[in-house]
Design a protein that fits this description.
166 residues, alpha+beta, Umud Fragment, subunit A, 3 helices, 22% helix, elongated, Mitochondrial inner membrane protease subunit
């Protein structure tokens, strides 16, 4: 009887480890569901919207300008942020706020991206903390799941004029 109980316990532990490994690989390499909070991505993503973030793009270096990404916060590594990619390495970006009279520009260094929220007046982004290392990107948001009346692919940036083509 003890042998039977130990056998069942070890089998259960074995299955738990196996399924745990499969779940880890799925969430790490394929993607997952994310609940977004804060006003920085309004009107594209509202507070408490639920989105699907796929992780393959970051592994294959397929992140492009205009993509919305989940990134480890440069200010607090325990939290993630959701921002739009405005510039990739080598791109010229506008580093000033929209309300600034004189506009300043800079180039994104190698291995970095320039991130901004869609709500430029209420977003802490690369204009505050500078370019973000590509390695901090966790995934690319490709689909809004909730609310259901807004289900589907995400719309283009309301700040398309911030993309420079120099």
């Amino acid at each position: 009887m003890l042998r039977n109980a130990l056998g069942k316990t070890f089998r259960f532990l074995g299955y738990t480890v196996q399924y745990g490994c499969i779940a880890h690989c799925a969430f790490e390499y394929l993607g997952g569901i994310v609940v977004c909070s804060g006003p920085s991505m309004e009107p594209t993503i509202q507070n408490s919207d639920i989105v699907f973030s796929e992780n393959l793009s970051r592994h294959f270096y397929c992140i492009r300008k205009g993509d919305i990404v989940i990134v480890k916060s440069p200010n607090d590594p325990r939290s993630n942020i959701c921002k739009r990619v405005i510039g990739l390495e080598g791109d010229k970006v506008c580093t000033s706020n929209p309300s600034d009279f004189l506009k300043s520009h800079s180039y994104v260094p190698k291995g970095h991206v320039w991130l901004e929220g869609d709500n430029l007046r209420n977003s802490t982004d690369s204009r505050c903390y500078g370019p973000v290392p590509y390695g901090l990107i966790r995934g690319r948001i490709c689909l809004k799941i909730w609310p259901l009346n807004d289900f589907g692919f995400l719309r283009a940036s309301p700040n398309g004029h911030r993309f420079l083509d120099d």
